[in-house]
């Protein structure tokens, strides 16, 4: 069933923004119709996405969504032909085009993807390059003033972090985004980085180049005044420690950072600071106060 988009009210900075897409019908993923991956259909999709008519662009993304849903292997095969058009869709200033391209992207990453996968010729999966390229573009939408776009961008970012494994490039991109001057972008990227690290296996962790930028970022964020970043850094280190052990993590950090003070700072993240039990201290205070009062009430013996 197709539902015609009604004007949607979005509250932003205590103001209501009316968002309208005249004549556009958004299609839920379960209502998409199959499209055969013939050369003719692929050419037609590319033509629609390249059209100067924005409505053709919009429905071209529906065609891509159908192709991915019903023929994921063929979609992967043709991804190099589509990827620039998908990236342009996410960047498009018309919100309906951006929204539908983000719908496509979220559907792509709703299923697990091993970004280190190679075909019979030894070539990396097309998703490896595409993911590293689309992630920075999607991240710009995280700070979009249109909530229906920023929320979809957040979903895509979370799905990439949760479902894409074994990619140094994705780790590096998330590290770079975590340094963004935009708190929203940096925060979401840092949360995604924490999620992504939980999927690292031991073999991936032990390859120095895979964690080069990550350990440098963590070292910086341990001193950050932004508590969420510091907390995430400690959780990332804890995850790495659980998978390769504290001694090997220290060795890896030493090799990457080449700075004893930074290595020491990372290792200190595992030290749990002992805090005084304020409740027991308060109970002792009351007990002593009670004793003192009892002493004051006792009559003097002459």
Outline of the structure:
The protein has 302 residues and is mainly α.
Describe the fold and architecture.
With 302 residues, the protein is mainly alpha-helical. It has a domain at 200-272. Helices cover 66% and strands 7% of the residues. It has helices at 39-50, 54-70, 72-91, 95-108, 126-140, 147-163, 168-177, 183-197, 202-206, 208-221, 227-244, 246-257, 260-268, 278-297, and strands at residues 2-4, 8-12, 15-19, 25-27, 113-114, 164-165. It has a two-stranded antiparallel sheet with strand order 1-4. Residues 1-20 have low confidence and may be disordered.
List keywords for this structure.
mainly alpha; two-stranded antiparallel sheet; globular; ARM-type_fold; ARM-like
Topology readout:
Elements: E1 2-4, E2 8-12, E3 15-19, E4 25-27, H1 39-50, H2 54-70, H3 72-91, H4 95-108, E5 113-114, H5 126-140, H6 147-163, E6 164-165, H7 168-177, H8 183-197, H9 202-206, H10 208-221, H11 227-244, H12 246-257, H13 260-268, H14 278-297
Parallel strand pairs: 5-6
Antiparallel strand pairs: 1-4, 2-3
Helix pairs in contact: 1-2, 1-3, 2-3, 2-4, 3-4, 3-5, 4-6, 5-6, 5-7, 6-8, 7-8, 7-10, 8-11, 10-11, 10-12, 11-12, 12-13
InterPro entries: ARM-like, ARM-type_fold
**Strand residue percentage:** 5-15%
CA-to-CA gap between the ends? 98 Å
Residue stretches low in confidence (pLDDT < 50, at least 5 long) are 1-20
Quick one: how many beta strands? 6
Widest beta sheet: strand line-up: 1-4
Kindly provide the radius of gyration, computed on alpha-carbon positions and rounded to a whole number of angstroms.
27 Å
Counted by DSSP, the helix tally is 14
Structural class: mainly alpha
Largest sheet: 2 strands, antiparallel
**What string, H for helix and E for strand, traces the elements in order?**
EEEEHHHHEHHEHHHHHHHH
Q: Which whole number gives the mean pLDDT? A: 87
The oligomeric state of the chains shown is single chain
Q: Estimate percent helicity.
A: 55-70%
Shape: globular
């Amino acid at each position: 069933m197709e539902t015609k988009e009604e004007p949607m009210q979005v509250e932003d900075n205590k103001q209501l923004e009316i968002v309208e897409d005249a004549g556009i019908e958004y299609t839920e993923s379960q209502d998409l119709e199959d499209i055969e991956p013939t050369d003719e259909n692929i050419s037609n999709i590319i033509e629609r996405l390249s059209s100067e008519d924005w409505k053709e662009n919009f429905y071209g993304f529906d065609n891509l969504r159908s192709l991915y849903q019903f023929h994921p292997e063929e979609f992967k095969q043709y991804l190099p032909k589509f990827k620039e058009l998908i990236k342009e869709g996410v960047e498009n200033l018309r919100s309906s085009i951006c929204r539908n391209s983000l719908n496509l992207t979220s559907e792509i990453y709703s299923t697990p993807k091993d970004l280190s996968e190679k075909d019979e010729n030894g070539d990396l999966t097309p998703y490896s390059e595409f993911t590293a390229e689309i992630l920075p573009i999607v991240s710009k939408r995280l700070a979009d003033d249109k909530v229906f776009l920023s929320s979809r961008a957040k979903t895509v970012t979370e799905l990439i972090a949760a479902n894409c494994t074994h990619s140094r490039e994705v780790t590096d991109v998330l590290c770079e985004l975590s340094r963004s001057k935009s708190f929203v972008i940096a925060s979401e990227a840092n949360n995604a980085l924490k999620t992504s690290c939980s999927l690292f296996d031991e073999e991936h962790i032990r390859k120095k180049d895979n964690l080069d930028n990550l350990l440098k970022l963590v070292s910086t964020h341990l001193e950050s005044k932004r508590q969420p970043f510091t907390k995430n850094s400690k959780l990332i280190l804890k995850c790495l420690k659980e998978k390769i052990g504290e001694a090997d993590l220290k060795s890896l950090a030493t090799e990457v950072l080449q700075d004893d003070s930074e290595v020491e700072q990372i290792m200190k993240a595992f030290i749990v600071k002992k805090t005084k039990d304020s409740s027991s201290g308060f109970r002792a205070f009351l007990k002593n106060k009670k004793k003192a009062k009892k002493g004051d009430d006792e009559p003097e013996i002459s």
